[in-house]
Amino acid sequence: MTVQIDAPVVDTELFIGGSARPAALGRTRVILDPATEEPLAEVAWGSAQDLDQAVAAAHAAFESGPWPELTLKERARLLLRIADAIDEHAEELAVVESRNVGKPIAFTRGFDVPAAAEIFRYYGGLVETIEGAARQAGRQSLIYTRREPLGVVGAITPFNFPLNLIVNKLAPALAAGNTVVHKPADETPLSALLLARVLAEAGLPAGVYNVVTGDGPNVGARLAEHPDVRKLAFTGSSATGKRLAATAAGTLKRVTAELGGKGANIVFADADLDAAAQIAFQAGFFNTGQFCMSGSRLLVQRPVYQETVDRLAGILAHIPVGDPGDPGTVLGPLANRAQLEKVEQYVAIAKAEGAVLRHGGGPVPGLDRGYFHAPTLFTEVAPQMRIAREEVFGPVVTVTPFDTDEEAVAIANSTAYGLAAGLHTADVRRAHRVAARLQAGIVWINTWAMFENTTAIGGYKDSGYGRELGPEGLEEYLQTKTVVLNAE
Ligand code: NAD
After folding, report:
1. Catalytic residue flag (residue 468)
2. Equal CATH topology for 2-259+463-483 and 264-452
3. Would residue 91 show up in a list of annotated catalytic residues for this protein?
4. Is 148 in the active site?
5. Residues whose CB falls within 8 Å of the CB of residue 307, separated by 6 or more in sequence, listed in order
6. pLDDT tens digits, 11-51
7. Which helix (H) or strand (E) holds 139?
């Protein structure tokens, strides 16, 4: 079964053991285009039965065949070849990701797809840094360590960055020598299905990367509980992450959990306000706010509060919202109807709580199809309001005034989350002091969402544990064996 999305053709069957196949129970699911609400593709809809077959294929590929025989050098070369193959298929991947998620094509071309290739290149470079150590003991013994892969890794990903969030797991998992079974998000599985074919074409042996589309409670839960899966790499909401960590504990598999966020973006009175307002826009509205690391809480020191709000509202008034396929579009639709309804509910909650609606708050004039919502700005938001504490995951930013550094830090740290935070100031001592006190896995100073492959990301508190990217991201997929030889 294949489907044509503009130019690219995506095979919509499951990808198990190196080949495409329909779901065991013969089920399919229609995927909608979030910009038009029209059917975009009909994908095979897997079940626990398909998942078991995929784990068996991944297990076989880990134990025998060409994959475990590759030297580090050969594995490194293969990852670099995969990066090149992603570049060669860049336009197809960019179009598929844009149509499936509703992401502006300028972003999938400029960020999502190039970043995916670069992450494979980065981990391709790290493969040959994997090394054990020799340990000294008595004169007649030899002790050394080997860094070994874990086995079959289960990956479960959310709907907002489908390509990047699997590549963040797949590249280090493969670099370490594991095999992978992936359950993509229910509504946005198309780029993973295409990626599996691209990797096979680049020479990845059969069974090393398997994709089973399907729902969370059946297919995802089976992956978390499967006894032959040695690690679960999960990205998604904190509620699902907690449930899955409990399930995974039944087989003592390792878990990394990249979960939700409610990032505080702090503007001090001495900041460059032009830059801060522009960055506040990007922090809050990138990917239509469907960004775990979004700066959805803007905290502004009172002397520059009104001016910052005015500048940000001025930017929102001129942002092109609309067709994700138009290279000039900056804000696309929400990725699915449930997400749009969630945003609408939170807008109603904010109004009922007494927050002041400064911009947006409803549909986009002229866009009567698709899951569009106007970029929305609430001011006079008190830290204890639900709109300031709970993750909306949409184009909604709240603004809260503060007076002192201490107050800013206290408000920033007052939610259950701890994924990302940021601050804007011209005072380098204040920057370091405040950064050290923010409870977040990453703190950006005078910028936001500046990512490097070398730089680990991950959560504090309810935003999860484990790290992706950087050398730390590779560590998550390795275990240590100690070998002791008595040479007497
Ligand atoms: P979600 O938790 O609803 O779903 C994520 C994945 O888990 C999907 O594939 C889903 O099918 C699966 N799932 C759902 N219920 C399951 C169950 N009972 N058992 C097994 N699998 C199950 O999240 P979402 O709505 O797709 O994504 C949005 C969330 O993801 C937000 O909270 C966002 O902050 C978070 N996120 C975090 C990061 C990060 O790096 N920390 C990145 C992106 C998104």
Report:
1. yes
2. no
3. no
4. no
5. 273
6. 899 999 999 999 999 999 999 999 999 999 999 999 999 99
7. none
Average pLDDT of the residues of the chain: 97
> Does the CB atom of residue 260 touch ligand 1 within 6 A?
yes
Establish whether residue 245 lines the binding site of ligand 1, counting it when its CB lies within 6 angstroms of any ligand atom. Answer: no
Q: Residue 279: name the closest of 122, 420, 126 by CA.
A: 420
CA of 189 to the centre of ligand 1 (A): 13
Output the residue whose Cα is nearest ligand 1's atom 9: 185
Q: Which CATH class is domain 2-259+463-483?
A: alpha beta
In short, whether 393's Cβ falls inside 6 Å of ligand 1 is yes
Ligand 1 close to Cβ of residue 236 (< 6 A): yes
Closest CA to 287 of 322, 335, 325: 335
Span 69-98, pLDDT tens digits: 999 999 999 999 999 999 999 999 999 999
264-452 folds as: Aldehyde Dehydrogenase; Chain A, domain 2 (3.40.309)
pLDDT tens per residue across span 188-209: 999 999 999 999 999 999 999 9
Mutate to test the pocket of ligand 1, among 240, 243, 419 (most ligand atoms within 8 A of CB): 240
Burial 252-282 (b: 16+ CB within 10 A, else e): ebbbbbbbbbbbbbbbbbebebeebbebbbb
Domain coordinates of the chain in residue numbers? 2-259+463-483, 264-452
Q: Of 207, 256, 227, whose CA–CA distance to 63 is shortest?
A: 207
Q: Ligand 1 center to residue 224 CA distance, Å?
A: 13
Catalytic residue among 92, 262, 292, 391: 292
Is position 292 annotated as part of the catalytic site? Answer: yes
Six token digits for residue 251: 């087989």
Indicate whether this model's pTM tops 0.90.
Answer: yes
> Sign of dihedral through CA atoms 461, 171, 19, 150?
negative
